[in-house]
Amino acid sequence: MIQTALTIAGSDSSGGAGIQADIKTMSAHGVYAMSVITAVTAQNTLGVTAVEDISPEIIQAQLDAVFTDIVPDAVKIGMVSTKESIAAIADKLVEYRPKNVVLDPVMVSKSGCSLLKPDAAQTLISRLLPLCRMVTPNIPEAEVLTGGTVDMSNWEDAAKTIYEMGPDLVLIKGGHLEGDAADLLYDGKEFTVFPCERIATRHTHGTGCTLSSAIASNLAKGLEPAEAVRAAKDYITGAISRGIPLGHGVGPVHHFYRLWQDED
Length: 264
What we know:
Elements: E1 4-12, H1 18-28, E2 32-44, E3 47-53, H2 56-67, E4 74-77, H3 83-96, E5 101-103, H4 121-128, E6 134-135, H5 139-146, H6 155-163, E7 169-173, E8 183-186, E9 191-194, H7 207-220, H8 225-241
């Protein structure tokens, strides 16, 4: 029986992040991918130029359509920009009780465009975090969630603070820190650091979306959380190292590098 995964996120018209990156990642992992679109963005490798949110009613209708027919083995949540859409999603997650919910708390795009309304952060914390098996903030997102500066000297404390908000596990991504791109996983008892050498490339569009989708895919396939993160880290490292030089800005990571043959 094939495993299934659902992505709840925004659409990226350039195909490098959001729904498109999630579906590519899940497919690359041999998982059947489904989607609930929360917003449509006009976006390319240079940045986000426009955003239009999908109504909470249509978001819930999409969720009903999926859960009443093909129950996902894992759910990844990405861009949810308004408190109304967050509440709509939370209500349906409470109703259907999916396992393996992975939340990537997307707040700001790489180009600096705000993707989460200022009044929605608290709703995300109070309504979505308690429903998650894992939350995967990067350093700026961890700072928003904790209300303070986060670096390697205090990221364990930050992970504990976020853990107390309700998720079963917290993965703080260290890509914004100096030095190696290490990540920190906290399960309420133990900390696990996943070291990774930083790759010198600008083609990193969709990195966060891809990592969280890879984790969700691995959880759907039955891996334990630490194994799911480690496998996802290996995957995203390969995808970044083979980033595709498309467009005039930050090119996308290569989601299918394990399947496509390099021409050279």
